[in-house]
Design a protein that fits this description.
Elements: E1 27-31, E2 34-39, H1 50-62, E3 71-76, H2 87-94, H3 99-118, E4 123-127, E5 130-132, H4 134-141, E6 144-147, E7 152-154, H5 169-177, H6 179-188, E8 191-193, H7 194-200, E9 205-206, H8 209-224, H9 228-240, H10 246-260, H11 264-274
Parallel strand pairs: 2-3, 3-4, 4-6, 5-7, 6-9
Antiparallel strand pairs: 1-2, 7-8
Helix pairs in contact: 1-3, 3-4, 5-6, 9-10
């Protein structure tokens, strides 16, 4: 994400680059403005641990101040996206925790979704194979989702004796696929097929497994070459307008668009149009 602060601005040091970030509990790669996060425990279908939850939350929070990351790709290794919380490393210990400890955990997992929704960069999820539990919530918290015909998505909390209300599921899922469909998935915990996900709007597109990551990276690069300040504004408006009346939303968008009209990218777009050229956006 490019910021308008010049190198001489005293606040510039607050905005750190993440190109050289060294992940501990998942794989991280950076190229051409795109940060790719890969859940990397393929032998267990990429489950989450206490440590990976916390590191992902911290990284998505840090993206608010990144000067170089324009788009995030989230995926899993070995033909699966994420099987949810690790049964042995998370579920087992949870059964022995006190109520205050359990609340600390559930708030931490929810904070990860908050961090994903509040970071300005578009998040594109490449989802193959198993996408279950907390893994389904990571997919849901992304801005765009690409899947394969073999992707199986399940919000299976009720199947382990828990409410379907987890990590924001009851707020996010109905808005994406509708109240009735979301209610069915959250009450039953059944698997949503890839075809259903595509028809219902959960997936933006389906690709062959061998082409999934390439298609996701291509989409990410397309977004990264766009007006990234404006993309951040779009994401902010999509998030904030949930709680607005139509009148409030229209006024908020009027202000947001006026701000974007002050950017250099807006000027570049006009100049390119006048010259019959394609604009080269720089995110400021």
């Amino acid at each position: 994400m490019t910021h308008s602060l010049g190198q001489s601005n005293p606040m510039r040091a607050q905005f750190d680059a993440l190109a050289s970030y060294q992940a501990r509990h998942f794989a991280y790669a950076f190229d051409a403005g795109v940060a790719t996060l890969t859940l990397n425990r393929p032998e267990r279908k990429n489950p989450l641990t206490f440590e990976s939850y916390a590191e992902l939350r911290a990284l998505f929070r840090a993206l608010n101040y990144a000067t170089d990351v324009k788009v995030v790709v989230l995926t899993g290794a070995g033909g699966n996206f994420c099987s949810g919380g690790d049964v042995h490393e998370i579920i087992g210990p949870l059964t022995k925790m006190s109520m205050p400890e359990l609340l600390d955990f559930t708030r931490m997992t929810g904070d990860l979704v908050k961090a994903m929704r509040l970071c300005p960069q578009p998040i594109v999820a490449a989802i193959d194979g198993i996408c279950a539990g907390a893994g389904a919530m990571l997919a849901l918290a992304a801005d765009l989702r690409l899947g394969t015909a073999r992707t199986k998505t399940a919000f299976l909390f009720t199947r382990v004796g828990l409410a379907g209300a987890d990590m924001g599921a009851c707020a996010l899922l109905p808005r994406l696929i509708g109240q009735g469909r979301a209610s069915e998935l959250l009450f039953t915990g059944r698997t949503m097929s890839a075809e259903e996900g595509l028809q219902w709007g959960f997936f933006n597109a389906l690709h062959d497994p061998d082409a999934l990551l390439s298609a996701t990276q291509q989409l990410a690069l397309q977004l990264a070459s766009g007006p990234t300040f404006a993309h951040g504004m779009t994401k902010t408006m999509l998030h904030q307008e949930w709680a607005m009346t139509l009148e409030q939303a229209i006024e908020a968008e009027a202000q947001a668009q006026a701000i974007c009209m002050q950017t250099q990218d807006f000027q570049r777009a006009y100049q390119a149009f006048a010259a019959k050229e394609k604009p080269v956006f720089q995110g400021d």
